[in-house]
Design brief:
This protein is mainly α and 87 residues long. It has four helices and two strands.
Length: 87
């Protein structure tokens, strides 16, 4: 199991992420790019470069990363614990 923390940091800054495919990253498919081999890399890099100033895509990445903000994750965990113990 992997969970590369740098991905959250890059997305929080609105940066593009290009990665080889890992099953654990399936949930990120709407905001990161996957490469299978060196053959399909150039078109993806060209697409990333063309999106460098696209504010909508940058905002989408930042919004996605906010789901993993520690304050939000802790609040969700706290709420689950309270609900479990019936407060």
């Amino acid at each position: 199991y992997v969970n590369p923390l740098k991905i959250y940091e890059y997305l929080a800054c609105g940066k593009a992420v290009l990665s080889t495919y890992w099953r654990e990253l399936d949930g990120f498919s709407e905001v990161i790019y996957f490469i299978e081999n060196s053959i399909n890399t150039k078109p993806i890099i060209d697409k990333i470069i063309s999106e460098t100033t696209n504010r909508e895509i940058i905002a989408k990445r930042k919004q996605f990363a906010q789901r993993y903000d520690w304050e939000i994750l802790i609040r969700e965990a706290y709420d689950k614990i309270l609900n479990h113990f019936g407060k």
